Amino acid sequence: MEAKAGDNPDSLMALTTAFCLRNLRRTMCYLGERNKLCLRSDVFLPSEICDKLVNTYTELVHMDSNFEPQDGFFQLFSDPHSTRLTRVQLREDFVRDRDLEAIGKQDLIELHLTNCNNLSAHSLRTLTRFRQTLVSLSLFGCSRIFYRKGGAPLACDEEEEEERPASKQAPETDFSFQGFNRLRLLNLGGLPEEVDAEALLKPLPALTSLDLSGVPLPKAAFLAHWKERLASLVLYNVDLSEELINTVVELGHLSCAVDLHLDISRERNSKFKMTRKILTAIVQGLVNLVSLDISGHIMLDNCTVPHFEEAMGRPSIEPCKSSIYPFQELKRPLQFLGLYNTTLCNVTHIPAYKVTGSKNEDQVLNAIEVYTEFRPELAHRAINQLFDIARIQHCSQLLRALQLVIAALKCHKYDKSIQVTGSAALFYLTNTEYRSDQSVRLRRQVIQVVLNGMEQYQEVTVQRNCCLTLCNFSIPEELEFQYGRVNLLLLKILEPARQDESIQRIAVHLCNALVCQVDNHHKEAVGKMGFVKTMLNLIQKKLQDRMCDQVMEFSWSALWNITDETPDNCQMFLNCKGMSLFLDCLKEFPDKQELHRNMLGLLGNVAEVRALRPQLLTPQFISVFSNLLDSKADGIEVSYNACGVLSHIVFDGPDAWAMEEPLRDMVMDKMMDAIQSWDVTSRRNINYRSFEPILRLLPQSIAPVSQHWATWALFNLVSVYPSKYCPLLIKEGGIVLLEKVLELQTSHEETKDMARKVMEQCENFKEDPMETTR
């Protein structure tokens, strides 16, 4: 038996890191003065562990709603004698100036800050502490780090800074990269236009990789400063000019045989137009070019080989066969070529091992992979195209597709467009067609990102997509590891009185499925979340609209499931005026068979709770139950459930029957007539997890009709579904209780006859358990 793709377990390092972070005080920390989190004095951690702790902490804060950020966490790494940090990756708004300052004494080699909008110029000063050791630095999307708030001095208190309005920001002019002599890789994507990129970068002597995405470059000549070394230059969404292109081409002439990556792609419109001549100059000039991205460029003239002149045979990556003229000049195929959102991706022969585009699944997946982290606007489009592939065609790289969409949803939790397209793609990628290829671990990752989306966005499209995706899973089994969380989110969706009809229907269906076939402690926990009240509110709303639709029926079904052997939830149903709604629904929708069955099933659960039965023992309710004995709705189900409710009530004896009308004996006679009218071979629309509520009605003489109903129920179930119910009856001691029925003089002969047949059926099953008839 082969393991499914993506089924590798988490490493021991990953598991222990997450455990320690969730249990800091039980593992490596204690609470010091003023409840300050402190590292234990006997703990010394190398960089491999510290890096993992900090980076996993960032991921948990970002992705896991159950994970509580720890105040003072970064302070644990303030002393390099006990903790060593070398490679740190922090993202999003939870990172503060004080967090970076806390690790200021560490000898960081790599610091990647992504979209950290709460960092101010205070953190620029902290950066200078790492200047002796820093090799790789990313400040992508951290534009506010280059501002002082309100023109305040750097030494001002951080709390004060945070109170100042953002509009009073002044650019930070004192910062310089002077002394960052080891810095090789720098990402300044999104640098504000008020900051002079040339002046900022000039002091850096040894850059080999520079990302200036979206940065205005009125003068480009300064880039030649790194002509001897530069191996990667990213100018995504930079306004190109002839001067800039000439400077870039010059880099290739002068660089010392360094493999070069050039990215001049764009997403927005530009005055600059790419021509065959310019593209040829780039390819000829950059002799060591191994990677090029020209995505988003409109070609001013045609630079593709006419179809009838193209090289024959299968698609080739040989430059001499290239369908794009300028690339015929290449000495060898490119490792990567970005052609996304261009017409060039559609040609036959492309001289590159990896291509982004929209022609086929491979190009689209490459685009998602390459652009997700720093270009969500492109990743969003590519995921949309993957959605069409999964929906209309067939996704042949399922594991890769799922992993890429999951990564995009994790990375861009706050990007609504990614959440909308990503959740829609997940719906098609997790449906039945692809299910057999997916591991438990992978499907759990899908559930996690779907729940994150539901948590973050109350917007209709995201909520609908997420709910629909959850419907692709086995419920409740596959959702049990997030049971409380998913129920809370669904109840929150159902809270508004006026909700989108389709979301309401899907959410109620999921709620119903989640409380079906689960342990009682799960039902009790969900009951405490307000499940019963929410369902009754939905029913009340549908009653006001005089509408009996799926939402109405699912809501009653969900109440039937959640009250099964759960007295607290039954009590909640009564406390929330559930009986009044039952009578109103019965009156408003007299012909809705499924509705009646669900309502009576629920009341059967309530009637099983002895302490609650007096609340059902009113002339009005007993008359209603008694009349429903004659119902032919849904086969025997409504009549059977009504008789079940009455069986428990009459079982309390004549003394409890404190009313003159209807008479107890008349009701019991009517019950007997109803039972005798049922076909014992009826197939059932009911599911018993335990026979305990039925078995307690057997060994008694106070209400023989209740005993008769219970015996009939057992006879029907073990006859029609022997493989399911014979073992259950034997396991729960039902045979001994049936023998007592035979011994009681008050038992009807018909009851005894059925009891013998039940025992006989179970005996036969034990002898021949290979039951095949269904």
UniProtKB/TrEMBL annotation:
InterPro entries, per database record: ARM-like, ARM-type_fold, Armadillo, LRR_dom_sf, LRR_Zer-1, ZER1-like_C, Zyg-11_UBL_adapter
Zer-1-like leucine-rich repeats region domain mapped to chain residues: 199-342
SMART domains (alphabetical): ARM
Gene Ontology cellular component list: Cul2-RING ubiquitin ligase complex
Keywords: Leucine-rich repeat, Repeat, Ubl conjugation pathway
Top-rank taxon, per record: Eukaryota
Chain ranges of the Protein zer-1 homolog-like C-terminal domain: 409-764
Family classification: Belongs to the zyg-11 family.
UniProt-listed PANTHER family: PROTEIN ZER-1 HOMOLOG, PTHR12904
Protein's UniProt name: Protein zer-1 homolog
Provenance organism: Oncorhynchus mykiss
